[in-house]
């Protein structure tokens, strides 16, 4: 994996099973270049792929997502939408969380609502990059009071165990 910093996406095109991404430098001169990858990682809702989908009055809803409110309810009273199909977050742990909310509302009639303020994210690079909740930029924009803490990896048990003590974590 290669991480490109100081670049921006200019154009995306699909050719067969490949995805072509045209990128250029943000703050320096130079010719744009093209990256090629496969679309095998791309996730789409089953309703878009021709799967089960949702129905309204005998008609299938064909779109990339089926929007829901915070209780996972669609605009059709007895249909709930969670996981990849509602388009909020494409994470397995969020899909499980949303399914629990949908189940509580649909079957148990408990008035549960989703709260995405503390969704964990992880990018599997080396070292890994992860976050939970607001980052510094979003906290500033929202007017939320915060403080940041930093820990050197040399002080983290996992980093010591893996022999990867360079770097730091910030929270």
Describe the structure.
Residues 45-54 have low confidence and may be disordered. It is built from four helices and nine strands. The strands form four sheets. A three-stranded antiparallel beta sheet has the order 1-2-3, with no helix packed on it. The protein has a two-stranded antiparallel sheet with strand order 4-5. It is extended and about 55 Å long. With 171 residues, it is of the alpha+beta class.
Task: Flag low-confidence runs.
Answer: 45-54
Q: Major beta sheet, specifics?
A: 3 strands, antiparallel
Strand order of the biggest β-sheet: 1-2-3
Number of helices: 4
Q: Helicity range of the residues?
A: 10-25%
Q: What is the overall shape?
A: extended
Would you list the SSEs in sequence order as H and E? Answer: EEEHEEHEEHEHE
Mean pLDDT: 80
Query: What is the CA-based Rg, rounded?
Result: 21 Å
- Number-wise, the strands total 9
Quickly give the structural class.
alpha+beta
- How much of the polypeptide forms β-strand, as a percent range? 25-35%
User: N-to-C terminal Cα separation, in Å?
Assistant: 25 Å
